[in-house]
Amino acid sequence: MHLVHYNNKYNPSDANKQPDGLAVLGVLFMISKEDNQNLSAIIDKLSSIQYRNSEVKLDKELKLKSLLPDTFPYFRYTGSLTTPPCSEVVTWTVFVDTVQISTAQ
Ligand SMILES: *[C@@H]1O[C@H](CO)[C@@H](O)[C@H](O)[C@H]1NC(C)=O
Predict the structure, then answer these.
(1) Whose CA is nearest to atom 13 of ligand 1?
(2) Which terminus in the chain has less CB density within 10 A, N or C?
(3) pTM for the full model?
(4) Domain count, the chain
(5) CA nearest ligand 1 atom 10, residue
């Protein structure tokens, strides 16, 4: 999972052209038997946002912290977007610990 943040020094449309434009939190998932209820606010709405640039309002409150691992050791490095044009504008923070997600989710 990528939580993408734009540097508010820039317009969102320009941030992806600046070397310090984006900060992305990367979280790795581990498959679990149980659903992770913390993800349900998002997962419940995925069928409503199947196309690029579509938007939907969540029905439930979502605390971003509940999407992160419980402990915070991380790797941080400067890198790029993961898709073309792969601009080198991202400060990556990738958490060492994983978050659970069920196969159904
Ligand atoms: C859900 O969020 C709470 C609060 O952040 C956290 O303590 C708990 O470990 C999370 N559950 C899962 C399955 O990640």
Answers:
(1) 36
(2) N
(3) 0.88
(4) 1
(5) 66
